[in-house]
Amino acid sequence: MIKVGDSLPSTTLMEYSEVEGEGCSIGPNPVDVAKASAGKTIALFALPGAFTPTCSAKHVPGYVENQAALKAAGVDEIWCVSVNDAFVMGAWARDQKTAGKVRMLADGSADFAKATGLTLDLTARGMGLRSNRYSMLVKDGKVAALNVEAPGKFEVSDAATLLKQAQG
Fold this sequence. Notes:
- Belongs to the peroxiredoxin family. Prx5 subfamily.
- This is Glutathione-dependent peroxiredoxin.
- Keywords: Antioxidant, Oxidoreductase, Peroxidase, Redox-active center.
- By secondary structure, the protein is an alpha+beta fold.
- The protein has helices at 33-37, 53-65, 67-72, 86-96, 111-116, 159-167; strands spanning 12-17, 27-32, 41-47, 77-82, 103-106, 119-122, 128-131, 134-139, 142-148.
- The radius of gyration is 14 Å and the shape is globular.
């Protein structure tokens, strides 16, 4: 499992863009994790699935609401990572009103989740291999803080916990 001091895995996530800009076409665009995190402080949180109850009611809204405070604490970008395709993440971004606040990044084949060692097998519930629920503070591509939830819990990966860690 990834730990504090480790570099983020060299994988590619996908991001759905509704408008063209900054070299991004409309639709899914690749995000090279190493390049996108280089020289930045990232508040990254991952969760089991888009549109799921805890994720939609608590996890994403907390980061949207705390976006300004996280920026003030030195966070350059907030990333939400989930084992869903870019189209689903794009629809969820619209639903959660994350534009300009949280980058909704798709880990469609769970490559990022597998590379971090933070997978959650929800096959018995019809959801297949997913990401565990966690948050991490990333500085220049390296994990500075990591908060992994126990199964079925939402206690340490919330925005308030990561904000306290970013404020140091």
